[in-house]
């Protein structure tokens, strides 16, 4: 694998519950009386090591609430990690000089799940697409119209519609506007957070094909976040499986679909509909995903795992290599 474009090392993200003045005074009084009131902290991401090589499409998969969108936002620079470091081409982003940090931030853009909520309803499409490159002086003088038209055309939209507002477009068209906005600052890396989840199936296929075409045309690298394993299998070179803030398995796409190792990965793949298994009875993963406010000790998956052992309740398994380029965090693989 080539040198990573983006690397996360020991990254964690915690969110603490905020209390109003009355609640804080009440908690202080109850603590003064001896009540045990621990701080309510969500460990959305727990000590993650992750890297994405240049030109690669990395699929990040997991149930809702597993922390995959939080990782995407930290990679895109929208939120800082609570612990750990984020590296851009081998350099710690927070240690960069301001100009280098600005360039690194512009090089990573994010495409959001909701193609309507992510667009300013009061702005015309031409202003949405041109806003960032204008601020960063990326549009040559007198070439605004040509530049905007080129971005819209690249995203598969007719530039004749650039004077319209977001509400005048369909969901698929709005997602294309979001893609054009991201491409307008000439990024090298796109974080796609459930970028096709809100679209009809036929439109999903169009957007996925667009992503693949853009990858070839612009030499883009992707972090593709999704809960849809069928989409991930179609698009990704490598897949990372997350559960409750931790990575449980990581492997090339063909390897993880052919030889899943972790019980959670096996359960996810068993639920994927296939044409040759249309008469099969599907069984959902038993139990509910635990609350990140109070995650289970040891392996977070053990309350739902059919192969759980006493050790799984006591110690968290280490993510280690079980085959070339295939890592898994499970005590069934031995110590």
Protein architecture, described:
Strand 11 (320-323) and strand 12 (326-328) form a beta hairpin. The protein folds into 2 domains: 1-15 and 41-236, 3-Layer(aba) Sandwich (Rossmann fold); 262-335, no CATH class. The two termini are 27 Å apart. The mean pLDDT is 88. It has 335 residues and is α/β, with parallel strands linked by helices. The strands form 2 sheets. It has an 8-stranded mixed β-sheet with strand order 6-7-8-3-9-10-12-11, sandwiched between helices. The protein has a 4-stranded antiparallel β-sheet with strand order 2-1-4-5, covered by helices on one side. The chain is built from 11 helices and 12 strands. The chain has helices at 21-32, 68-75, 98-107, 125-135, 144-154, 171-183, 201-218, 229-235, 253-258, 263-270, 310-314; strands at 4-16, 41-53, 57-61, 83-88, 91-92, 108-111, 189-193, 221-226, 238-243, 246-252, 320-323, 326-328.
Give a summary of the structure in a few sentences.
This protein is of the alpha/beta class and about 325 residues long. Helices cover about 35% and strands about 20% of the residues.
């Amino acid at each position: 694998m080539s040198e990573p474009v983006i690397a996360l090392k020991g990254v964690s993200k915690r969110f603490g519950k905020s209390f109003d003045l009355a609640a804080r005074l009440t908690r202080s009084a109850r603590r003064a009386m001896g009540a045990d009131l621990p701080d309510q902290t969500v460990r959305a991401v727990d000590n993650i090591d992750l890297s994405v090589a240049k030109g690669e499409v990395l699929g990040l998969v997991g149930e809702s609430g597993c922390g995959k969108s939080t990782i995407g936002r930290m990679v895109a620079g929208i939120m800082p990690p609570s612990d750990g470091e984020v590296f851009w081409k081998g350099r710690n982003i927070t240690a960069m000089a301001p100009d280098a940090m600005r360039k690194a931030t512009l090089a990573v853009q994010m495409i959001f799940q909701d193609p309507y909520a992510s667009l300013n309803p009061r702005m015309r499409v031409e202003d949405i697409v041109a806003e960032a490159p204008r601020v960063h002086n990326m549009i040559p003088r007198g070439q605004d119209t040509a530049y905007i038209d080129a971005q819209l055309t690249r995203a598969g939209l007719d530039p004749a519609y650039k004077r319209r507002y977001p509400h005048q477009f369909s969901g698929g068209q709005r997602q294309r506007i979001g893609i054009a906005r991201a491409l307008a600052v000439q990024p090298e890396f796109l974080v796609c957070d459930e970028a096709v989840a809100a679209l009809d199936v036929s439109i999903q296929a169009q957007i996925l094909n667009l992503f693949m075409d853009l990858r070839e045309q612009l030499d883009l690298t992707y972090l593709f976040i999704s809960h849809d394993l069928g989409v991930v299998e179609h698009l990704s070179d490598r897949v990372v499986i997350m559960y409750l803030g931790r990575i449980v398995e990581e492997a090339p796409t063909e390897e993880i679909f052919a030889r899943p190792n972790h019980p959670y990965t096996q359960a996810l793949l068993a639920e994927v509909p296939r044409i040759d298994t249309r008469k099969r009875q599907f069984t959902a993963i038993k139990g509910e995903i635990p609350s990140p406010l109070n995650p289970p000790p040891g392996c977070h998956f053990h309350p739902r795992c059919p192969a759980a052992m006493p050790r799984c309740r006591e110690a968290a398994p280490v993510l280690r290599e079980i085959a070339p380029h295939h890592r898994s965090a499970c005590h069934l693989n031995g110590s």
